[in-house]
Design goal:
Blueprint lengths: L9 H10 L8 E5 L9 H10 L2 E6 L4 H6 L6 E6 L4 H4 L2 H11 L8 E9 L7 H20 L7 E7 L3 E3 L7 E2 L4 H14 L3 E4 L2 H7 L6 H4 L7 E2 L6 E2 L2 H15 L7 E6 L14 H16 L14 E3 L73 H4 L1 H6 L8 H7 L6 H4 L2
Parallel strand pairs: 1-2, 1-12, 2-3, 3-4, 4-5, 5-8, 8-11, 11-12
Antiparallel strand pairs: 6-7, 9-10
Helix pairs in contact: 5-6, 6-7
Length: 424
């Protein structure tokens, strides 16, 4: 592809790929959102993805232009069905039509390995969406079985960390009581089909909500004294690992100790509004670069030290059409012209050619029976600081017991676990 389409990327990229990429021993994932009208053409995005050593991409749709551009690159893909598709996907015939039109044509050249059905559905507190979620996942899986694709493509859904009722200490992690039955059925589906359990986790929100109480070093993977889980005696020097292990504990508490947990979103904005503490290029650089170093070291969490981290950084690009506060439009590692949003420690390359219009994050070519969602519909992705995710700070603050007095927790209405009943 590079020989047939010469551009300023080529020379520096070739040198980079020859000498740098082989050292990236652990898989790095990246979220590729497209709620923007100024992003590079997908073929020009391939070198950017390779420049950071990413081998996995999560899309919020099944954009055919992206899937074609990454054919024969070896990059693995999670493609997605937005929340607005769940009701339709309950119908097995529509699910099979969607898979046949949006997944099957791109295999095996493009390595689609997973379909994410819905995003943070359980924390929208929408009973219709919640009731539709598992049936939709089952229908999509059945479609894969019927098309003999189930051995190479799995089905999952991404959850907000706010599905946890208790997260501190990590060993006492537990799901919200009202969600336990639903989560249990979903996890059982994962175990039967071999698919991963996805969680979106943002330590940034904890810092943003309480910058005077939260240790910035603790959330940015910087040197700090950390915390010790009083039940497991495990030491945590960063919030993300504590969050991940709280999820492991919550899964164990409902009888599932060996589920593959993947962090489907985590990141830090490089810019924000006046009331968005910590949203700076330097903090974003520290968070994402330190995280990528940890992934490259194949370092597991204290509770799962021998398990590779499976993490998708949010996000590849700043997206200028995302609604909400300024931070929403500034999570990207790259600006739309392909320049780095802040120094990433990798060679800079150029990807200036842009699309003529926004894909809106929904660029897939659907079957006739499953139309694209209207521009006003919510996919669960448009704003990661939606009400369902804003409640994330409630969960994340429970990690801050070593930094916040009990009086602070009580005054904010937060509770920690009763260790007499929550020790696993």
């Amino acid at each position: 592809m590079m020989e047939s389409n010469p551009n300023p990327i080529s020379s520096s990229l070739l040198l980079f790929l020859l000498f740098f990429t082989p050292t990236m021993v652990a898989p790095l994932g990246i979220n590729y959102g497209q709620i923007a009208n100024n992003l590079p053409l997908p073929e020009n995005v391939v070198p950017l993805v390779k420049s950071i050593g990413a081998t996995r991409i999560k899309l919020y749709d099944a954009d055919p232009h992206v899937l074609k551009a990454f054919a024969n690159t070896g990059v693995e893909f999670i493609v997605s069905l937005g929340n607005e598709y769940l009701a339709k996907m309950k119908d097995p015939s529509k699910a099979q039509s969607w898979v046949k039109n949006n997944v099957q044509p791109y295999l095996p050249a493009t390595k689609i390995t997973c379909i994410a059905v819905g995003n943070e559905v359980l924390t929208f507190n929408d009973t219709i969406l919640t009731d539709n979620l598992l049936p939709a996942m089952q229908s999509v899986h059945t479609a894969l079985v019927n098309l003999k694709l189930d051995k190479q493509v799995t089905v999952t859904t991404a959850h907000s960390l706010a599905i946890l009722q208790t997260s501190y200490p990590p060993s006492a992690g537990a799901f919200r009581r009202d969600l336990v039955n639903c989560v249990t059925r979903i996890v059982d589906f994962h175990c039967k089909t071999g698919s991963p359990f996805l969680i979106n986790a943002y330590p940034y929100f904890a810092y943003k909500g309480n910058p005077k109480q939260v240790s910035l070093d603790f959330v940015l993977f910087q040197p700090n004294s950390g915390i010790v889980d009083p039940q497991s005696n495990l030491h945590y020097d960063n919030m993300l690992f504590a969050q991940i292990d709280a999820v492991h504990s919550a899964l164990a508490s409902i009888g599932y100790k060996n589920v593959c947990v993947q962090i489907s979103e985590t990141g830090w904005p490089s810019k924000g509004d006046a009331d968005e503490a910590g949203a700076t290029p330097e903090n974003a650089r520290k968070y994402n670069c330190n995280l990528m170093k940890l992934i490259g070291q194949k370092k597991g969490t204290p509770m799962r030290p021998n398990s590779d981290l499976n993490i998708y950084v949010f996000a590849l690009f700043n997206e200028n059409l995302k609604p909400g506060p300024s931070s929403e439009r500034n999570y990207g590692l790259f600006k739309p012209d392909g320049s780095q949003a802040y120094p990433l420690g990798v060679p800079a390359i150029n990807a200036a050619s842009t699309n003529s219009s926004s894909s809106g994050g929904s660029g897939s070519t659907p079957s006739a029976s499953v139309p694209l969602p209207p521009a006003s519909s919510s996919s669960g992705y448009l704003a990661i600081t939606s009400d369902s995710v804003k409640s994330l700070s409630t969960v994340q603050l429970l990690y801050l017991a070593p930094f916040i007095s009990l009086a602070h927790f009580v005054s904010f209405g937060y509770t920690t676990c009763n260790t007499n009943v929550c020790i696993l």
